[in-house]
Amino acid sequence: MATPRIHPTAVISDEAELASDIRIGPHAVIEGPVRVGPGCVIQARAHLIGPLEMGQENHLWPNVVLGGAPQHAGYKGEPTRVEIGDRNVFREGVTVHRGTTASMVTRVGSGNVFMVGSHVGHDVVVGNNCTLVNYALLGGHSVLEDGVIISGGSMVHQFCRVGRLAFLSGLSGTSKDMPPFVIQQNINWVAGLNLVGLRRAKMSHDQINALKRLYHIVYLQGLSVPNAVAQAEAELGHVDVVQEFLTFIRNAKRGINGAIKETEVLAA
Questions:
Q1: Which domain does 233 fall in, by range?
Q2: What DSSP state is assigned to residue 255?
Q3: How far is CA 197 from CA 181, 182, 183, 192, 242, in A?
Q4: Active-site residue, from 47, 122, 141, 157
Q5: Which end of the chain has less Cβ packing within 10 Å, N or C?
Q6: Is the pTM above the cut of 0.90?
Q7: Amino acid 5: pLDDT
Q8: Which one from 123, 146, 163, 197 is the annotated catalytic residue?
Q9: Are residues 9 and 108 in the same domain?
Q10: Which residue, 141, 156, 177, sits at the end of a domain?
């Protein structure tokens, strides 16, 4: 059996369960019931606080803190959880806070990249293959679906949901639900479709053309949301990605944002 490569200055709890091949750098701390899967790298001064479960091949850079207590006045000190999947990268200074109550869990999927100083708040759910650029912030209870990009210095308000392959531009923010496939800029303004992201996701021409028409109906015709949804359903309801978009809107608890009219060309 392979011997763990653990620096002698690391502090490891007796409750920790570590795969045999992980690497732990100088002055790292693993506190409480923490389970770390195979192939993980935990660099200098990283701090993991249990209950925390992490899958395989995750890479924690220096000064990452996973499982810290939530920044929430209602937190009573109970041992809430963080659950992390596989092949995530947590760059320097990233923080992920645990849930606020015994029934709540902060969950991170697989294949995500959290760049320097980004923050995942309590009770957040992050899907797969998302990117948080430097100092991006996710407020408590927010949800990121797969393939989302939150650009540098941007923020998702608490309880907001961001749909698949959506893109929040740098120094921007959303306090409403952000539908899949869109680009959002500034504070609460939709600026077009994330066409680069759609192509990288290998969507077909038919799917992308349907989304362009959908964008025009929902954001540029001046219709109310119910009327826009009804028209889009009638014209485009047979297209899977359109149904995904419309289902998101129907389930949006915080509403959705309007469009910047000058960007009509982006969706033409």
A1: 199-267
A2: -
A3: 8, 9, 10, 12, 16
A4: 122
A5: N
A6: yes
A7: 92
A8: 123
A9: yes
A10: 141
